[in-house]
Amino acid sequence: MYFRRIIVKLKTAKSLQDWPISEQSAKLPLNWQGWPDGKKFAFVLTHDVESLVGLKKCRDLSDIDIKYGFKSLFNFVPYKYIVPANFRRYLEGKSFEIGIHDYNHDGKLYRSKKIFDKRASKINETIRQWNACGFRSAAMHHNLEWIANLDISYDCSTFDTDPFEPQPDGVNTIFPFWYQQKGSDRGFVEIPYTLPQDFTLFILQRERDCRVWKEKLRWIVEKGGMATVIVHPDYINFDKSRKNKQEEYSSEIYEDFLMHIKTEYDGKYWNPLPKEMASFICEQFGKNQDKISQLELFHV
Known about the structure:
This protein has helices at about 1-15, 50-70, 85-95, 115-130, 145, 200-205, 210-225, 250-265, 275-285, 290-295; strands at about 40-50, 70-75, 95-100, 135, 155, 175-180, 185-190, 225-230, 235, 250, 270. It is an alpha/beta fold.
């Protein structure tokens, strides 16, 4: 962790021109018609649960989302720990969405096509068992051509700009887009995250408030884009009576951000689940024409 913090500090100094904001990523997609009901921007809230520690904190995190009236996605790692079926049903009953987070989070999913294909068959089994429709890779590794072989309607394994990731090639847009696999009829909606990850800000950079989130959100709202954020329960301290551990940040920071959105942008945002975002993109760009050819106009 010590060396990771040094590396992030050095990269931050070199990335001020395109992180956390890359001005080029605000370009409107072709034929863009805006968000539902004339909303100024979309806010997509996602949670990646990396370990059993995080799994045990999911109820506390969901309670905060409910408190402030937000819907969110919980991504679980299917072959690293057991996610009780009754807990998945509980979350779905509270209007949350369940998604698949990698295979076992060991960083080897894309090491070779053979490894990916073997694990993809198991991932697809879990997708069917959980009635899920979305995916996100560990460590934001991505190969969209391979991901298209998963039985999904959307993927969340990319970002607009993030020089701190192992695979730092951003898609350079703050809008969702359609990805079409070459030479096939398989494709999906890609939903990049557009706000810095909580782990980057509060664990590596040791930020003590959500100032960076608020500043970039203001810019996204001005551009009419999509604010997507990844929050990990693994790194949050929900016990206000206990001092934060080295790899934790206070839940008060997260609550402050949700309260900021709720009050500062009341009535201006659309808060869809990722599956609702995917349906919206397909409906908006698939009307009255061949779905694939029309959606290709949205392809980044």
